[in-house]
Amino acid sequence: MKENSIEFKVYGKYALFSDPVTRVGGEKFTYQIPTYQALKGVCESIYWKPTIQWFIDKVRIIKPIQTQSQGVRPINFTGGNTLSIYTYLKDVEYQVKAHFEWNENRPDLVNDRNENKHHNIAKRMLERGGRRDIYLGTRECQAYVEPCEFSSGKGHYDNIDELSFGLMLHGITYADEAVTEAEKGHMTIRLWTPVMKKGIIEFIRPEDCTIRRIVGDMKMKHFGEGNFIGLDEFTEEGDLIGMDECTL
Prior knowledge:
Belongs to the CRISPR-associated protein Cas5 family. Subtype I-C/Dvulg subfamily. This protein has 248 residues and is mainly beta.
């Protein structure tokens, strides 16, 4: 187990990990399993700073995969409403193992690279249910997180040797996460073919996705004294708010 890793359970009444192909027509249809990007978003809602980058190691599917369709009346760009059918996953629960690494595209934040500090804060925020609202795929799918031991308890797919889910979205590489020179300054979409074994899906790293496409230009956001305050946001008149001294 990596020293800077976290293990947690995330669960909710609904989830919507929508396929980009179905979003164009307004009829959102969920994938059967969470995407790497969605779980990364959960980690960032637990704790995030531009100094670090979360990597999802693996996810375990605890409850059976089941869907539910709902009629939704989204607002048109030109005004008025239309009728769409959204298909959600229902009654979901996952166990996730993830770790963080330094964002090498942020050399300006090298002084903030204190592994113990970030790891301790991440664990504390996980115990409190996350710093920001947790959701699964889309904002209306509220979820909850709590620490757990990965592989603990029983899962619905523990006895299924192998289950393939075909080609699906892995995630999005933003400008400040690009590894290759060709993708720096761009937004890149990544695809992969996940396989679940004994209820567990092990994710490949973003740079290992062989199916990828640059979809547009993107500039890195600059962080400086005006919009990045590090640990200062946890302090009030010099005292730590709700933290032990060990988090420093």
